[in-house]
Design brief:
alpha/beta; Leucine-rich repeat, LRR (right-handed beta-alpha superhelix); 22-stranded parallel beta sheet; 24 strands
Length: about 550
Amino acid sequence: DDVLVLIFLRVERLRYLNDLKLCCKRFKALYWKVVNLLEYPFKLSAGINEIAERLILADGKSIAINHVNGEFDSSNLDADLQRGLSKLPIEKIAVNNRSNGMSWIAPLINSCKGVKEISINDAMLFFPWKFQPLSECHSLETLRLKNSSFITNEIALQLLNSFPHLSSLDLEECAQISDQLFHSNIFTERPLRHLGLVGTDVTEEGILTLAGKSPNLEALNIGSCGLRLQTVEFLCLYCPKIRSLKFLKTKFSAEGDFTVLKHSTPPLKCFESLSLNGVRGDYDRVYGYFLTKSLTSLEVLNCSFTGLKQLNDLGINCPHLRSLNLDWNMHSWPCDYPLRTLFSRCTRLNSITLSKKTHFSDSILRAMSSSEISVFILQEPRYERSISDVSIEIIGEWGKTLRHLELPQTMLTDAGVQTLVSKCSGLSTLNLSNCRQITDASIQSVAHHLPHLTKLYLRGCCQVTDAIHTFIYQGCRLLNFIDLRECQCIHFSKLNQWEGTHLKDIHVTNLEDDRRLVSMQVKRSEAPIYWGTVSVLLSSSQFPRLDTRCQKMVCDCSSSS
């Protein structure tokens, strides 16, 4: 909600910006996308003046610049625009996706004097001289530079020197960053709290050097390197404030003598959040090493140690877990006992995400009845899970706290859905994809009992028909997203019935009347198929008919298309 999207496909259409006076009263984020800047460098400057005038009317705090192609001189960011931006409380700036020339970003950022966070994603073509003008952002606290092969150790040090209040630096996929970076004394002088080094050339030596110079470090992301557990203990010893560790594709070894170190190092009680993604190593010395009673958030994805013993140890050693994300292959397990035991011990869990490989059933849910769950996600499996209406009574006990529920490809019926929504009236997100037994009656219950629902996923619910639009219109007044893909009884031509709702995104595909849509495309004088606040439409048709006010379209095409 409260987001203004500006998409300029043709710069000469900027004369229509006067219409923004009607919609710039209130929004939280401005998304600014301009295509083919190189073709209209002069008209662009005049258009930017219009944008600046409109922005002054708003209270936006973040700007996202997406898919900018082409270079234009920073002089086009004239004084009017800079004055306009300086009057806005801009705190966050995000630049997404590769651009062929980005020297103009520095003047833009410098116009926002109070900016606290800058994120540049896929910035492949940044050069050292383009960072120098950013020194005016004295309030900058967070800087994220992802996938930039031109970021060297020297440039990283220059950035640290330019921003005295910088406390968080993420250099993900900046391949030229190496151990040499941490030889500088700036890490001793600067209270850096968060550092991201995934995809860099930093080795164990660099981590040890960093640990000795950054006592205020609170979070560290490491990836694609080999580490000894002894290095982690040194990190804990010299960085006592550390609370979050993320390891991506890291291979651990237990080489070295731990005897002296273990007597001088306190237990790893400081860790509260741990992420192990693609980690390899011996179970007894790696996985068991990290499991402590202080952990409140744990993520284990694609690791080499994912068996019955590990799951049992998790429940014993981490009783205070609040957030759990597991991606383990549990299809071959003979029973539900390991998961039942885990959830019966970790009674403080409020957020659970289980992968599509997880064997899950009603008996496991019974073990979770004592928890107060607010987020429960079962990623969609390749087979129908044995979760039936019996489970709903258990899930209903979370009704006061549950806000996000995903139960795709289960055996729920209309009766089960009605019981669920009557007890969980606070739900804002509900995913019932591929629950093939539910009908329009379920959606009627959803609309009646879930007034705060904003996202509804019904993909593959083959018995849901066009009649649900009436229930949505009358009940779910806050719903802004609905997924109706692979719903064979939903007709493209009936989408105009959604006018008047709050819907912004409708996902539709595999419709019965796709063939007829091809012939409708050439008759441009026909009435539009949909209009109103709907801004996004997904269709499998090669020629979907769109209203002239449509802002965005995405077509699902086959690989041979």
